[in-house]
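Subject: for your reference before the review

Hello V.,

The reviewers asked for a structural picture of the protein, and I figured it would be easier to keep everything in one thread rather than splitting it across files. Below is the amino acid sequence we used in the manuscript, unchanged from the supplementary table.
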Amino acid sequence: MHTFRPGLIAAVLVAFALVVVGVRSSRTSAPEPRPPTSLAPTPQALPPVSDVAPDAAAIPPRPAPDHIQRVLPHVTTEVDDWRTYTPERITVQLAPDLPATYRVVTVERDARRTVLSAVLEQEPESGAFLVTAANSPDRWTATAVFAGVEYQITVDRAEAKVVEAPESDFLCENPDVLIADDLEPDSVSVSAPVSAADGSTVVDVLFLYNPQALADRDNDAAMIDLDCARYIASGNMVLANSQVSAFRWRYLGSAPTPSYSFGENLGDNDLIPMRTSGILGDFVRQQQSSRQADQVVLLAGGVKRGGVGVAWITGPLHHSAVSYPYPTSSSGVRATSVLSYYTVVHELAHNFGCRHDRDDPVRPGVDGDGRYQYGHTITRDVGGTPRPYATVMAVNGVRIPYFSNPDVMVFDMPIGVPVDQPRAAHNARFIAEQAASVAASSTADSPPVITVQPADATVTVGGNLTLSVEASGNALVYRWARGETVIEDAFSSTLVLSGVTKAEAGVYRANVSNARGSATSRAATVTVTDAPTPPPPTSSPPSAGGSGGGGGGGAAGPLILCALAMVVAMRTGMRLR
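And here is what came back from the structure prediction:
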């Protein structure tokens, strides 16, 4: 006979409940970390990837602060170290009525930072994306990109901010002298480029910033590092959108420059000191060489006009400069955001040789010119009003995160023109084709040394001028100048000018450079002479019986009489036959 003991049953139920709770806690307290897609092994210095502490069963997780949950509503528990925050999905409350959920596609972790890239889950084919970066336990940053809209998010222990980047603040100031119509086939000596683990080419990018840029960013070098990491991650998302798989950009880091001031705008005068001898140029060259950078971007603080960029179109130094951050917007009101990814990626692509769209009002393309490195604009009807949408290299229209590519459809329209068409526009193909040359530019073994100097030359007006230079070294790029004027499109070791005019006489020099240094040739004097005067036409002999006038008369000379006699005799002979 069994005795019913309510107290014992209650104790058993309590014990079972504790076991169940313990099992549930053990299932949620320490999930297995998802292996990140990384270019480098996860360093030992970083803690394991987890949103909660390993001993969560003993110590209940702390709820996330309200300011974080307002921006990241899915983060319900406090994140101890944002560098370990690598969820499979991220929801960001960009505005009260605009939540956006993203699916993470890549995670890159190294000893300094963690960078995530994600696509919009609601519309994965839209091209919209999110990139995040964290380089400390206490701060997380992100950039969310849609067609025509960019948001920049910062979360730390004290506050969370979402700021919309002003789309109107963009201006490419590339002057004509810096733009090459095309890349000459022999303008770059290609060495073996660096490759990623998946076999694709890697183009390494180094960022430099002047003291004013640091001051404008509240003297926060760590924030500059996060900005730059997101610029490069955004560029790689644009490549992915554009179906470019031949290469990817890799962020090498950022460093301060010696004191250097810029004017109210950016132009060629601000790029030239980066690649010539001087305080700034020597520093840039040393940094590029020591870090083996393929491209260098200078963040120019102190520029009055926000969103301005300028870039060299060719050369192993591959330099560009962008205003950073926005001291003032175009309306003169101080802006709250920093430089847009769009400006940086635009100027990086210029280094590859990409150009604006053919309808660029400053430097339009010529239809049927055989080139295809142009941006492209499509027009979409929005509420009965045609609205232009511009790819990254196009200058007018709503920004969309794509390079021109006729094989990619946006709004059911191709965002490029096939290369065999008169208005060809295929930035994606062109940038992929140039990737190996750009990636090899940091592999120069030694600075160039000129071995054969250009010789003096004399040419007549309308003739052809040919000057040549030879140099030792690899990854070489050539530029020619007449006096102090750089000759556009002259990127080969041989300079050829057709139809020479008197104005092209003067002193010519060649500059040969690579990532290790540069060398300038002797001055070759070119003399342009007038074309020789043709001899006057021979006049007809005067008539034998004519009476002269104006000094042309007189009796016929004996030679003429003899000649006439011979002619008469010949004719008589012909008649006799």
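For the response letter, the relevant points are probably these. The chain has a mean pLDDT of 78. The longest strand covers residues 98-109.

Happy to draft the paragraph if you're swamped.

O.
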